[in-house]
Amino acid sequence: MSEDRSSNDPSDKSWIEKIAHAFSSEPKTREDLFELLAVAKQNEVIDDDAISIVEGAMHISDMQAREIMVPRPQMVVLKADQPLSELLPIIIDTGHSRYPVIGDTLDNVLGILLSKDLLPLLWKFENSADIDIRDILRPATLVPESKRLNVLLRDFREKRHHMAVVIDEYGGAAGLITIEDILEQIVGEIEDEYDEDDDLPIRKIADNDFVVQALTPIEDFNDYFSARFSDEEFDTIGGLLLKAFGHLPSRNEITRLEDYEFKVVNADSRQIHLLRMRKLEES
């Protein structure tokens, strides 16, 4: 009798029986499904990465574009009326494959520029002044802030788009979202050959030629270059430069701080984002 009771004890069921039982009654809630996955993981049928992917794929249906978008102040955009000689340094320094192109304001998105679309024109025209990027813009995809990520991911796949401009309730640009942003919610951080450099606040381009994030702490800048900038009034290099300029600078404006020359690579109507820097030769 004791053997019969033991064989019928639910705690003695194999993981296969547990899974079979779960599927026989069909999971009716997410909790049921997660419990099923937990059993599979416990018995080494699937690993932590697989569970994370399944959970991520389920969670994006509860998330909206506003939750993961690149916010408006951090968007890197190109102005349609800028000469190519000014646009190329931005493209080279930031290293993105796609850029929103705007008209007079950030709310006037004309289209998306693919960096690769520039290459044939650079080869074709000897004079860059003959190139008008408006001629090669792709249509911009506009989505509301409330767009569900699972729906947006399906739209990206079906329409073969990789980027969308997120629009607020007033029709203005609220931010930017890419297919990679959504996939990272499912599989985790996706790193490519450029990510390591992009995460660095200071990046060496060549001898005495550096790209510096404006939010680089002054203390870190001083440590890197053996400089002696004071951090009593400002915390970041961008703050120091705002004081040096005396106004919010535009792209390509240049100023000098002690023995260093800074050129604004990317800025918007609120703050400086990216700088090009070189150390001046001692006279």
UniProtKB/TrEMBL annotation:
The keyword Lipid biosynthesis does not apply. Residues 69-131, 136-193 form the CBS domain. Keywords: CBS domain, Cobalt, Magnesium, Repeat, Transport. One of its GO terms (cellular component) is plasma membrane. GO terms for molecular function: flavin adenine dinucleotide binding. The keyword Electron transport does not apply. Transmembrane segments: none annotated. InterPro entries: CBS_dom, CBS_dom_sf, CorC_N, FAD-bd_PCMH-like_sf, FAD-bd_PCMH_sub2, Ion_transp-like_CBS, Transptr-assoc_dom. Gene3D superfamilies: 3.30.465.10, CBS-domain. Belongs to the UPF0053 family. Plays a role in the transport of magnesium and cobalt ions. This is Magnesium and cobalt efflux protein CorC.
